[in-house]
Design brief:
single chain; mainly alpha; 2 helices; 45% helix; 0% strand
Length: 69
């Protein structure tokens, strides 16, 4: 599990971060869990999450465009 506060790696069963002590949040199931999760720690993971959101917004806007035309 990756800590949301300090991006450090923790064991899968950890409930609190071993480095900063913050509570580790588990990923939400479904699409929102997929959009807000990344196996890559640090800034790389944040970039992946941002790209996922951009892709979803692009698809939604493309679908809206097909219905409007």
């Amino acid at each position: 599990m990756i800590c949301n506060s300090c991006d450090s790696e923790n064991p899968p069963s950890a409930r609190f971060c071993g480095k900063c002590g913050a509570k580790i949040q588990t990923a939400k199931p479904g699409v929102l869990g997929w959009l807000n999760s990344s196996a890559t720690p640090g800034w790389g993971g944040k970039v992946i999450i941002a790209l996922k959101w951009i892709a979803v917004i692009y698809v939604v806007l493309a679908l809206i465009g097909t219905f409007l035309s």
